[in-house]
Amino acid sequence: MFSGIVEKMAEVIKIETEQTNKHFTLKNPYGSAMSIDQSIAHNGVCLTVVRSDKDTYTVTAMHETLRLTNLDSLRVGDKVNLERAMTPDKALDGHIVQGHVDQKATCIERRETDGSWYYRFAYHSTPEMIKRGYFCVDKGSVTINGVSLTACEPDVQGDKGYVSVCIIPYTYENTNFQDIQPGTEVNIEFDIIGKYLSRYMELTKK
Fold first, then answer.
1. Whole-angstrom Cα distance, residue 40 to residue 201?
2. Quick one: 127 and 188 in the same domain?
3. Positions of the chain with pLDDT under 50
4. Which of 43, 135, 156, 181 shows the smallest number of beta carbons within 10 Å?
5. Structural domain of 12
6. What are 111's strand-pairing partners?
7. Which residues make beta-bridge pairs with 84?
8. Does residue 148 fall inside a structural domain?
9. CA-atom Rg of the chain in angstroms
10. Whole-angstrom Cα distance, residue 179 to residue 159?
11. Which residues are CB-contacts of 18 (< 8 A; sequence separation ≥ 6)?
């Protein structure tokens, strides 16, 4: 489990394809070797460390993860948002994030607003997905590329859902939001509490 508070960014330095899997090797920004089997969120995707030393580490993404997320489009030199798993004594500064990305979304607008940045994203939506909690509510929580954010101006039109977020300078400078432009694909995870409540109501309604 994660909180959506990005700790570091890591640069992709090698990508290996093995059948339908991809192995990503990244520079290690933490200064010490990571534990094998450690869970780390990469752009909001929970991945397991399979190799590690002081300078680099490697994680593996399988076909389904690559299909649902923007990891398949990563290239050598790209920066990835990182967050290590929560510990019991760690403050929940963001919100409950599973690291289980629901789908990709596409940036359709980006503009500076007197020192901060405004982004608007579009994602695929259907009535069935909404029944299962795959939607945003105004002032609710949403995770984009692993960053816990407040949802603004949510909307659904036809087969598209929309959500906007505002990024403060610190977040902009310390995450890969600085690289997001109109057309960029990002990972989106909807609020787990909303998903549980939506599913419960759907299963128990008469």
1. 32
2. yes
3. none
4. 181
5. 8-84
6. 118
7. 40
8. yes
9. 17
10. 27
11. none
pLDDT number for residue 93: 82
For residue 128, give the 3-state DSSP assignment.
Answer: helix
Q: How many domains does the chain have?
A: 2
- Give the per-residue pLDDT at 14: 97
Alpha helix positions (H), the chain: 63-68, 127-131, 169-174, 192-204
Alpha-carbon distance 138 to 148, whole Å? Answer: 14
Q: How far, in whole angstroms, is CA 193 from its chain's centroid?
A: 17
CA terminus-to-terminus distance, the chain = 34
Instruction: Count Cα neighbours of 10 within 13 Å in the Cβ-side half-sphere.
Output: 26
Report the pLDDT value the prediction gives residue 78, as an integer from 0 to 100. Answer: 97
The pLDDT score that the predictor gives to residue 125 is 97
Q: Which of these three, 51, 84, 117, is where a domain ends?
A: 84
Task: Convert the pLDDT of each residue in 137-163 to its tens digit.
Answer: 999 999 999 999 999 999 999 999 999
In one-letter notation, the amino acid at residue 160 is: K
Q: How far apart are CA 8 and CA 174, in angstroms?
A: 7
CATH number for the domain spanning 151: value is: 2.40.30.20
Decide: helix, strand or coil at residue 183. coil
Residue 90 exposed, middle or buried by CB count within 10 Å (0-12, 13-18, 19+)? exposed
Same domain, 75 and 117: no
Residue 206: per-residue pLDDT:
63
